[in-house]
């Protein structure tokens, strides 16, 4: 361990979180990230890693995209933060752009600082618009770790230590329309779900599921909240993942990719009816830093690049290439890999045993590919690289993964003596 790395590690132990420091060390990720460009991260030793985690959806444009950096530098010289007293042009420009590209008649945007904040305010808006309080989410969902978002999230290991959570939340199995129909009723304010569950293990619902959820919400007078924080802005091979089923939600949340990999920003986008009651008291929901000029400038530049380059098409093509290669590896090592699934460049590889990830992920890091697990299903290794990754880099990812899986297969009998 280098002198600088040793210092930073000790600072984590003494001043950040000792448990996190130990976890990173076990996973061989106790490096100091120093520079990044495109799809590559460099550590304090100058070693390069292809970023196959992509900030779990943040780095859709890779690291330090030049157009986003230029937009932020320009805005920094003008006005970084809003006074909240006057009209904010970067925010208005971004809201207008999002209105133009969002599904159907979605019109208004409210800006915050993160995905969890976006979910919190989406839930508040749903209750305000409907006058109802009950919210239905799905098991395995991940919507964030603030109290309202955590109440919607669907894994007990994260929920239990903080109970009691916000009341009037219930969960149905993801992808099961009959189970959802059994608990949605005339007291339901909203159904919130991810079109594809990311942290839940890259779970793709059956074809037509989102259409059925939309129909059910309409029948019961409930709103549909689409959490596109991880899937939105091109990740799954469409600009928004709801477009795979041709669905228009009432409320949609964005974050992660929205900031272009440079600034944190989240957004709540809604149809006109959702905003109707809020218009009567526009200060009912506010955010001190939400919609600041710096973040909005970054987001506008990022969305502009995504649209101009049609990066969702690149995600679709490269995603098919990646899944084909991963399925070939799965066929060769069936006792290690249980399943390969996903859409676009959101791909999950489910291992047969959870302990195998403890071999495969560190082995990949050792050989220059950075990736990780999904939080709600740790035996799933996630492949979520920047959409600007090139084919040679993607092929190296596959080669490194194949070697790591072979290593796991060689250690299988030693790891699992049952």
How would you characterize this protein structure?
The strands form 3 sheets. Strands 4-10-9-8-7-5-6 form a 7-stranded mixed beta sheet, with helices on both faces. Strands 1-2-3-13 form a 4-stranded mixed beta sheet. The protein has 418 residues and is of the alpha/beta class. It contains 16 helices and 15 strands. The protein has helices at residues 3-16, 18-26, 54-57, 66-76, 89-101, 115-130, 147-152, 156-159, 177-181, 209-220, 272-280, 293-309, 311-332, 357-366, 391-410, 412-415; strands at 33-37, 40-43, 48-51, 108-112, 134-138, 169-172, 188-193, 223-227, 251-254, 266-270, 337-343, 346-351, 369-370, 372-374, 377-383. The mean pLDDT is 96. A hairpin with a 2-residue loop joins strand 14 and strand 15 (377-383). It has 2 domains: 31-64 and 311-415, Aspartate Aminotransferase, domain 1 (Alpha-Beta Complex), CATH 3.90.1150; 66-309, Type I PLP-dependent aspartate aminotransferase-like (Major domain) (Aspartate Aminotransferase, domain 2), CATH 3.40.640.10.
Main attributes of the structure:
418 residues, seven-stranded mixed sheet, four-stranded mixed sheet, Aspartate Aminotransferase, domain 1
